[in-house]
What we know:
A: mainly alpha; 80% helix; B: 80% helix
Amino acid sequence: MCHRWLAAGVTVLVGVLLVRELAPVLRPDAAVEQQGGRDATTGFLGRAVRAWFRHRIEPLVDTLHAAGVGPNAVTAVQLVTSAVCALAYASGWIFTAGWLLLASGTLDVVDGGLARRGGAAGPRGAFMDSVADRYGECAIFFGLAILLRDGWALWAVLAAFVGAFMVSYTRARAEGLGIECRIGLMQRPERYVILGGGSMASALARHLTCETVPAHRILVAAIVVVAVLANVTALQRTAHAAERLS
Amino acid sequence: MERRRRPFGVLGVFLVLLGAGLVLDADRTWAGGGLMLAGAACLAKERQG
């Protein structure tokens, strides 16, 4: 069934919220003065947007901390959310899947905040968090692969999957050799924002045009962007580490 | 003493979008509509401060 008016309402609401929230943050002078602008380690979202998001999430971290919720519990919920997101993609629930993807990314920020707030931040938590992140991301790409299994977009999903894992692997391998390696345009928050936002935009476009057979064009475009830029980021990190090691 | 901020803004946005998702993806009009109303109430609460 086509929900044109609801899709139009949601599009306007999200647009208004984004402009209201991000316009002050994205002013060039504000970004440079308040947050130090963008550098090679912050991806294309930039330091100002990341700082804004952490600021918006802070009340949630406070509330969970006051309720005695630990970071490991949030990591577990994040993993479950990623698994449900994969099921949503596999079932063709694109808007809900995008929502779950953004929720999973938010929970990843929340668990880090909770660990720091409770003084529980340490190598064990960081390691467990990274493992949960990889499994979660794996589940999400599986869901996307099931959704887009009948067309060329499956190849884009596989390329994005490889790129996403190589971005993490190159950093982990470089850091294992004692080299800081956080550079690159397409880090995990960027992947989540592009795929989550692309999924939701794709579903909204489908309802706005009352498309009977969903083609998921915006979602496929988002996957292609992730596939290209994640692999570029992995190569950037490889070059950076190789230069430092030579 | 500084009053602790409540996460109504974040919750409101997430609830509205989850409700919209239920309607758009699964035609669950009542469940989705209820969640959207709850989200709108959270956003209104945040605006009140």
